[in-house]
Amino acid sequence: MIEQKTFTLAPRPRGYHIITREVLTQLGDLPNVGFLHLFIQHTSAAITINEAADPDVLLDFESVFNHVVPENLPFLVHTMEGPDDMPAHIKAAMIGHSITVPITGGRLNLGTWQGLYLCEFRNRAGGRRLVGTIYG
């Protein structure tokens, strides 16, 4: 069985956000065994899996990535959409646009402290579209 759902996450401010519950709500029942492939249809946001227990991790991610790829770099050419746009594209490329998670016993088989992240790099972004493909 292969099932695919496209859905839009609620808009969020710039930063890193745990979206595990929202994604599971959108997907509904999962098969007993399989895989979830999740893809974000945007070039200025990313998705990943990381620490979901301590909210300081979310803040540290934001700080590190803003240090590595700051806004207003004088050599950037793509600046028409604002100073946060090209850095957002670079950060999204660094983290990635898709993840795959095993499904075991009808649940995402994440590690004890893991959660799904939306990495929002724009200052004023709308809702982000995800495509969830369930193989099971």
Automatic annotation (TrEMBL):
It comes from the Bacteria. InterPro entries: UPF0047_YjbQ-like, YjbQ-like_sf. Belongs to the UPF0047 family. This is Secondary thiamine-phosphate synthase enzyme. It comes from Neolewinella antarctica. The lineage of its organism: Bacteria, Pseudomonadati, Bacteroidota, Saprospiria, Saprospirales.
